[in-house]
Amino acid sequence: MYTQYINQQNPYSLYDLADWTVKQLQQASADLEGSSPQGILRWGLENFAPDIVQATGFGPEGVVLMHMVSEIRPETKVFYLDTSLLFAETYALRDELVRRLGVRFERVTTNLSLQQQADQYGEALWKSDPDSCCYIRKVTPQREYLSHYRAWITGIRRDQTIFRANAGLVEWDTTNKMVKLNPLAAWTNQQVWDYIREYDLPYNPLHDNGFPSIGCWPCTKAVKPGDDPRSGRWSGQEKTECGIHLKPDYEI
Ligand code: SF4
């Protein structure tokens, strides 16, 4: 059903920027402004396949992109970070996406079990030090995994958070030293949901029960109607991002 990729502490990148300069990427991003997400995806897949992979946290944006990618280049791999702390509904959605769209998932995870993490750092690290918990269970495994590709596709949108407001359609990802494609950057939440309804795509049923943004179960709470959609993530803490999209993306 999916390929499993466990963090093996491999050294770094197989690829450098090589054939693209940051200026060229910025120009490409500017040229693509106003294009459809499918047009942006086509540009990315034409330029970087097979060394390009889609990321998903199983939010509605990821579902939309999986559908678009499945129509343009169905063999494209889609990876997800399995922290071993995802909701049962999230795993069920993964399985449904395999059935409906034939998605080729790769499961990316740390080799530190939850028990080993508790033994080394204490019980419920997500409460005592969520930054470290995310670093161990998400940031490091993702960095490892991405080091084998030249480009990745994300579902981030500019209106999601202040940190994402300046996201380009195409960027140089300084952290991972690779190209980052954000085909839905200019889309609104409404456009995402309109697309899901138009194509009758599956989505996480928790979205209908007060969870607009869904991550690991210990760090996700329902929000009241009208509240910031991401306020249910790390509720009561200053943390707003897990760290996989935080670094500036504009310089080497
Ligand atoms: S979202 Fe919470 S449980 Fe998941 S990795 Fe981050 S701190 Fe840990």
Please estimate the helix content: 25-40%
- Encode the helix/strand succession as letters: EHHEHEHEHHHEEEH
User: Regions with pLDDT < 50 over 5+ consecutive residues?
Assistant: 7-16, 247-252
Distance separating the two termini: 37 Å
How would you describe the overall organization of this protein?
By secondary structure, the protein is α/β, with parallel strands linked by helices. It has one domain (2-219): HUPs (Rossmann fold). It contains eight helices and seven strands. It has helices at residues 22-32, 37-48, 60-72, 88-101, 114-121, 125-128, 130-146, 189-198; strands at 2-6, 52-55, 77-81, 104-109, 151-153, 170-173, 178-181. The N and C termini lie far apart (37 Å). The chain binds iron/sulfur cluster. Residues 83, 85, 126, 130, 133-134, 137-138, 215-216, 218-219, 242 line the site of iron/sulfur cluster.
